[in-house]
Design goal:
Blueprint (H helix, E strand, L loop, with lengths): L1 H9 L8 E7 L2 E7 L7 E4 L18 H15 L4 H5 L24 H6 L15 E6 L5 E7 L9 E2 L6
Antiparallel strand pairs: 1-2, 2-3, 4-5, 5-6
């Protein structure tokens, strides 16, 4: 984690597209936010190991789907589901009520109904959608021990155990 952080601290965020990044180990998870209007990449320690990082900061009110994903993940973990079972939550199509959706900016080429569709965990629109998904599990020593990948939308493509790629 320290090596990645040192690279990010030296990175000039104005030279790339903005990004959000989660990195580290289960014992020390970090989140980085880079925005092209600022030189510095902001790095913060995650206060707990389970969080959902959408296309904004953790906890952004503009992404109710992150709240839903976290609630589904917590419930799955409380039931001690396997990583393969947890991966199925990524196929969720539930959309929040319009009252929870942030309207698009004035002059946008799409309406609030489109923004609402983007708040599902598994997205399907004519022009944008979920193309794959990944679920990772760590062992007690902090090493990635299981790797599941769906090579398409998780509602139509099973998460395959590709843990052999970790060797």
């Amino acid at each position: 984690a320290d090596g990645v952080a040192s690279v990010l601290w030296r990175h000039d965020a104005r030279t790339t597209n903005g990004f959000n990044l989660a990195f580290g180990t289960p014992a020390k998870l970090l989140r980085a936010y880079a925005r092209p209007e600022r030189r510095e990449v902001e790095i913060e320690e995650a206060p707990e190991p389970l969080f959902v990082l959408a296309n904004d900061r953790v906890g952004s009110p503009e992404f109710p789907k992150a709240e839903r994903a976290e609630a589904l993940a917590r419930a799955a973990l409380d039931r001690a589901e396997s990583p393969a079972q947890i991966a199925k939550l990524l196929a969720d199509h539930e959309e929040p009520p319009l009252s929870r959706v942030t309207p698009p900016p004035p002059g946008a080429r799409f309406g609030i109904d489109f923004v609402q569709r983007l708040q599902a965990l598994c997205i399907h629109t004519e022009s944008y959608g979920t193309v794959s998904s990944t679920t990772l599990a760590w062992d007690a020593d902090g090493h990635v021990s299981r790797y599941f990948f769906a090579a398409g939308p998780p509602c139509t493509h099973a998460h395959e155990d590709v843990s052999g790629l970790l060797a």
